[in-house]
Amino acid sequence: MAKVYATGRRKTAIAKVWLEVGQGNLEVNGVPLDTWLGGHEALKKRVRQPLEVSKQLESVNVVAKTLGGGYSAQADALRHGISRALVAYDEQFRTILKPHGLLTRDSRAVERKKPGKRKARRSPQFSKR
User: Fewer CB atoms < 10 Å away: N or C end of the chain?
Assistant: First the structure.
C-alpha cells in the first residue's frame, strides 16, 4: 500500500498529512510528536485520538507538515488531517470516526475587525464630556 495524503484545517492552520503502513511513528515538521508538542499532554491526546478510536496506533506511520495559526490550532488541524487520511486509507473507518466528530471541519475562525470599532465588536469607550 502506498502513502495516503489528506489535508486537515482549523482556524488559519493547515496540516498536510501522509499516512502509510508502519510501526506507529508520528512525525510532525520533521520531529516526533512528543518533541513538537513538548509538555502539552492534552493536545498530544487530541492528535492521537483518531488513531486510538480506529485502533491504528501501532500499525500506521504518520508524517505531517503544519503551517499557519498557533500550536493548538495546528494540533486540531493535524487531528482532522489524520482522520481524513484514515478514511482515504480504508473507507470502513468512516463509520468509526464520524460518531466521534473527527471528520467534521471546525469552521470557527476569528471574526474580522469592523471600521469604527476597536475589535470585531468592541466599541471605543463612551465619553459623555
Answer: C
**pLDDT tens profile 75-101:** 999 999 999 999 999 999 999 999 999
From the list 74, 79, 80, the residue with the least C-alpha distance to 12 is 74
Report how many domains make up the chain: 1
Q: What distance in Å separates the CA atoms of residue 13 and residue 50, rounded to the nearest whole number?
A: 18
C-alpha cell at position 119: 475589535
User: 107-114: long-range contacts at Cβ-Cβ below 8 A with a sequence spacing of 24 or more?
Assistant: 108/11, 109/11, 109/12, 110/11, 110/12
User: What global pTM score does this model have?
Assistant: 0.90
CA–CA distance, 18 with 7 (Å, rounded to integer): 9
Is residue 50 assigned to a domain? yes
* CATH number of residue 13's parent domain: 3.30.230.10
